[in-house]
Amino acid sequence: KPRIAILISGRGSNMLALIQAAEQAFFPAEIGLVLSNTPHAEGLAIAKAHHIPTHVEDHTLYKKNRQSHEEAIHAVLKQANIELVCLAGYMRMLSDYLVTQWEGKMLNIHPSLLPTFPGLNTHKRALEAGVKIHGCSVHLVTEIMDDGPILGQAAVPVLPDDTEKSLALRVLEQEHKLYPRVIKHFIERASAHPKGEFLLNG
Ligand code: GAR
Q1: Which atom of ligand 1 is nearest to the CA of 108?
Q2: Which of 98, 129, 134, 190 could form a disulfide linkage to 70, CB 3.0–4.6 angstroms apart?
């Protein structure tokens, strides 16, 4: 089975959804590593409790040198024989360096129906905009933040009494279902078409 690395910065609820999916026989990959850019990510303890190897590459130790931080991350991913990188609440901007190394093999989950509301505070902005449908997207990571081919989306209604918190929760519930499903399809399609955009060991 191909090995996935999950990159996190915080709570890690999407990470947990992926770990739990990978614990099921139907899932075509294993979680080989959870990597955080901060030692304070709550998700690290959850990963450890599930016996997943964890690694912290603390960006504050790299001063302002984003590329050297990413070079360190890349080396760790290679060392762990990772074939697919899944960002799950990884809140650090990536430079072209890491994105290029993992082109076609790095996915992200974003809490909006892209291309609307890229960036931060998506739920607040959705409420302010008065949209009636909101949701989440899984996409391939490219040099442009929250851009790149959309691989899957899930929609939820925005209800009249919604607060940022209630809307975020409704979306999050869908994130936890969407991300494992999209990864499964992505990997199965890749093995069916080994010359496709996702090359196992390629
Ligand atoms: C999730 O809602 C994820 O979609 C979002 O952060 C949250 C992380 O929660 N990601 C972004 O906003 C990326 N720009 P989690 O740590 O519990 O998975």
Answers
A1: 13
A2: 98
Section 22-29 average pLDDT: 96
Q: Residue 64: its pLDDT value, please?
A: 77
**Atom number in ligand 1 closest to CA 122:** 12
What was the ipTM of the complex prediction? 0.99
**110 CB under 6 A from ligand 1?**
yes
- Which pTM does this prediction carry? 0.94
d(CA 71, CA 69): 5
- Residues 17, 89: contact at Cβ < 8 Å? no
CB distance 11 to ligand 1 below 6 Å: yes
C-alpha 110 – ligand 1 centre gap (Å): 7
| Ligand 1 centroid distance, CA of 175 (Å) | 9
What is the rounded distance in angstroms from the CA atom of residue 23 to the CA atom of residue 9? 22
CA distance 106 to 67: 17
pLDDT in tens, 44-80: 999 999 999 999 999 999 987 999 999 999 999 999 9
- How high is the pLDDT of residue 193? 61
Structure tokens at 55: 């690694």
69 is catalytic: no
